[in-house]
Amino acid sequence: MRRRLNELMLVIAIAIVSGIGSALIAMDLSRDSAALSIGPWQAASPASGSEGNPYRRAAAATGDGIPLGTDEGIAFLARSDSAGEPLDGRCDYEVSGQAPSAALWTFTVYDGEERLMDNPAGRTGFHSREILRREDGSFAILVSAGPRPGNWLPVASASEMTFAFRLYDAAFGAGIGGTERPMPEIVAVGCR
Fold first, then answer.
1. Verdict on whether the full-model pTM lies above 0.90
2. Which long-range contacts (CB under 8 A, 24 or more apart) does 113-118 make?
3. Which of the given ranges, 45-54, 60-69, 148-157, 179-188, has the highest pLDDT on average?
4. What is the pLDDT of residues 102-120, one digit of tens each?
């Protein structure tokens, strides 16, 4: 009797560990999967709504951020520049071009652990209503540890960075991924 009870307890323990382990793996894979890629920018699959991936929703719930619903907008992340090189806090970057049609967009820089990057100026991003634009409507944001003229976003020197470009109330049929108004380009302009 005692032996059977021990075997039952062992089977239950194995089932619990296997179930939790497989759910954590599925959440981790869902967090890194992208539904849409445009150059270095990747948008995660929907985390909310009836069409949302349940593992993606669980991954979002365990994270620090609040995910956007598909009717609110879309968030693109870039961990590399347009040439495919990983983003590095010791390099200066120019993020430039046009944004896809959206009522509002934001650009933010995160550290290697995907937390807002601390810097002496206390500035972590820009939004479309405050950005300086060129005559053709395009923009250039300079991401650098040292001061730069124009749309300068100061960053602390770190080994890894992630850029986030969020589109709110976006017109998804009008140019996202097409040639009309692609995502901004990320170009390394120098490294220390």
1. no
2. 114/64, 114/162, 115/64, 117/89, 117/155, 117/156, 117/158, 117/161, 118/156
3. 148-157
4. 889 999 999 888 888 877 7
Task: Kindly report the backbone phi and psi dihedral angles of residue 80, in degrees, each rounded to the nearest multiple of 5, phi listed first.
Answer: -140, 165
pLDDT band for 18, please (50, 70, 90 cuts): confident
Instruction: Write down all domains in the chain, each with its CATH number in brackets.
Output: 34-49+69-191 (2.60.120.600)
For residue 150 the two structure tokens come to 């124009």
Q: Mean per-residue pLDDT for 138-157?
A: 90
Do 55 and 144 form a contact (C-beta atoms < 8 A)? no
In the numeric block, which tokens belong to residue 170?
């976006």
